[in-house]
Automatic annotation (TrEMBL):
Naturally occurring in which organism (per UniProt): Paenibacillus germinis
UniProt KW Transferase keyword: yes
Residues in ATPase BadF/BadG/BcrA/BcrD type domain copies: 11-293
Pfam (any one): BcrAD_BadFG
Lineage: Bacteria, Bacillati, Bacillota, Bacilli, Bacillales
Protein name: N-acetylglucosamine kinase
Length: 328
């Protein structure tokens, strides 16, 4: 008995949520599903597979692409599956994630004639620029910059995670604030308003409590990233230390963008600039500072107020790969 044909499959597997679409040749969505994070670096391999299965199963059921109770029981076939998965930064990551994806598809009895796996930031770039020349700068909990030129050459900078990178991100800003509060206690930094904003938010009494908090189970990347909005509040009240942290954040972000622009010669042509993530969307000072840097260094770039979901980039990638294979 031949396998049941299903439409194309696209997945945006982010660090917070996963989104799955089944769609046809015309880009019409036939079924969609959501689940939690499938970033194996954050949730572990078993949980990553589980969430990926959950998102795909939900999409199959939403589109009634299989009958009741048939998910994982009926063999399915798709012409192309394109997945953008968080945590894919090295070839080592690629091998692990490929195995996780294959495990999920095998569990659901889905056979993909063509399987494409990319970093979720690359998916976001394609979704935001629609394949046209552009820069995508993301500064949320983490940070990364991607770029693509008119030849389709892609480059990235940053995005190496909170332990060794993510400069300019919400986490980085929050971490700098904590460092400066402790330095203030030592007398190494001039008096500032950071402690009076951050300590009450964390329900702490003094900088020593803050030190203890950073080394206990209450500490998390997400919680530290939340502190970035308090740094912004301190800045609006005239705090110069808070201002210096945000200037450094903006400069770090633009350094990544400059490196990408130079590597792919993007400044030689008109290109789009898409700014995404909570820091760039909600912190007007950082956004304006970065925008001014772009205007000075690369005036041919145009800031676009787009926020197209990354999954549309994976849909375009799946269709493009299928068309090339089919025409060939």
């Amino acid at each position: 008995m031949s396998a049941k044909k299903i439409p194309f499959l696209a997945v945006d597997g982010g660090g917070t949520k996963s989104l799955c679409y089944f769609f046809d040749m015309h880009g019409q969505i036939r079924g969609q599903g959501r689940s939690g994070s499938c970033n194996y670096q954050g949730v572990g391999k078993e949980a990553a597979v589980r969430e990926l299965i959950h998102a795909i199963r939900n999409a199959l059921e939403d589109g009634k692409l299989v009958g009741n109770g048939e998910v994982g029981e009926t063999e399915l076939e798709t012409d192309c599956a394109a997945l953008g998965i968080a945590g894919l930064d090295t070839e080592y990551d690629r091998r692990i994630i490929l195995a996780l994806v294959e495990e999920a598809l095998q569990y659901l009895r889905i056979r993909a004639k063509r399987l494409i796996i990319e970093n979720d930031g690359f998916a976001a770039l394609l979704g935001a620029t629609n394949g046209q020349p552009g820069i995508l700068m993301i500064a949320g909990t983490g940070s990364i910059v991607y770029g693509v030129n008119d030849q389709g050459v892609v480059a990235r900078a940053g995005g190496w995670g909170h332990r060794v990178g993510d400069e300019g991100s919400g986490y980085w800003i929050g971490k700098q604030a904590i460092i400066h509060i402790l330095k203030t206690m030592d007398g190494r930094v001039a008096p500032n308003k950071l402690a009076e904003h951050i300590l009450p938010y964390l329900d702490l009494k003094d900088p020593e409590d803050l030190f203890n908090w950073t080394y206990n189970s209450s500490y998390s990347v997400e919680k530290v990233a939340e502190l970035s909005s308090l740094v912004s509040q301190a800045h609006t009240q005239g705090d110069q230390v808070a201002k210096s942290i945000m200037i450094q954040a903006a400069e770090q972000l633009f350094t990544c963008a400059k490196a990408v622009i130079e590597r792919i010669n993007l400044y030689r042509q008109p290109f789009q600039i898409i700014l995404q993530g909570g820091v760039l969307q909600n912190n007007a000072f950082v956004r304006e500072y970065v925008t001014n840097q772009f205007n000075t260094f690369a005036p041919s770039g145009q800031i676009e107020n787009k926020n197209k979901e990354p999954i549309y980039g994976m849909m375009a990638l799946a269709l493009d790969h299928y068309q090339k294979f089919h025409d060939g």
